[in-house]
Design brief:
It contains 9 helices and 6 strands, in the order αααβααβααβαββαβ. The chain has 227 residues and is of the alpha/beta class. It folds into 2 domains: 38 residues, no CATH class; 187 residues, Rossmann fold. α5 crosses α7 and α8 packs parallel to α9. It starts with a helix and ends with a strand. The structure holds zinc ion (ZN).
């Protein structure tokens, strides 16, 4: 029955490349051969870290950062991020999370870590139907076999007018937009996951909350890092 449903779904929604949406990938891959070769993969954590240069709001204390792709405007990567955020493509988010874990963290032992996805406000989550960072985390967790903790870090403010503010004002507003759930115990080893890092101010605001109680080792990772 499941195979039958998969076949029917495959006819209605052919398995197109996640990046170009034109060609079919081979053997359950996410991308067609052409995109596979051309997508701007970040080669190493060192390169990802270098891409943070000039992101004034990214906390200096975080020394462990990695990303899957470089993010530029009007690119396939930007289109994918748009689809997972605004077009309901949560499955794509999950599959890209899987790829992030496989490609970037393949030889890292993360067994004493838990994943904390960057939260969105519950009102936004209701509108969207999901939190894209949580979906990325699901894919990641399935590869590394580690838990996701969704209720530890919470988004306390639902700010609709973010785009109207300049970078500094946005960063200031974000500082007061996250909190820790009162009932949650302290987490000592955290992988903080987001979809894309642009200025670093979201990560900074989340990090400030995560280290509030006592020293905490935080690894940050994302699908994209803007350059
Ligand atoms: Zn393609």
């Amino acid at each position: 029955m499941k195979r039958y449903i998969d076949t029917v779904l495959g006819l209605i929604f052919p398995n197109l490349c996640y990046a170009c949406r034109e060609y079919e990938p081979l053997n359950n891959q996410l991308f067609c051969l052409s995109c596979q070769e051309r997508l701007p993969y970040v080669d190493s954590p060192k390169d990802a870290f270098a891409a943070l240069e000039g992101k004034d709001f990214f906390p200096d204390e975080i020394t462990d950062y990695s990303a899957l792709f470089y993010f530029t405007k009007d690119s396939h990567v930007a289109e994918m991020i748009h689809r997972i955020k605004y077009e309901g493509q949560f499955r794509m988010a999950k599959h890209l999370g899987t790829l992030l874990a496989e490609k970037v963290f393949h030889d890292q032992d993360l067994s004493n870590y838990v994943i904390v996805p960057v939260p969105i406000h519950k009102k936004r989550k209701r509108e969207r139907g999901y939190n894209q960072a949580e979906e990325i985390a699901k894919g990641f967790a399935s590869v590394k076999n580690i838990p996701i903790i969704n209720n530890h870090l919470i988004r306390t403010k639902h700010d609709k007018s973010q785009t109207a503010k300049d970078r500094k004002e946005r960063s200031e507003a974000l500082k007061h937009s996250f909190g820790l759930d009162k009932n949650e115990e302290h987490l000592s080893h955290i992988i903080l996951i987001d979809d894309v890092i642009t200025t670093g101010s979201t990560i900074s605001a989340c990090y400030a909350q995560l280290i509030k109680k006592s020293p905490t080792k935080v690894i940050v990772t994302s699908l994209g890092v803007s350059i």
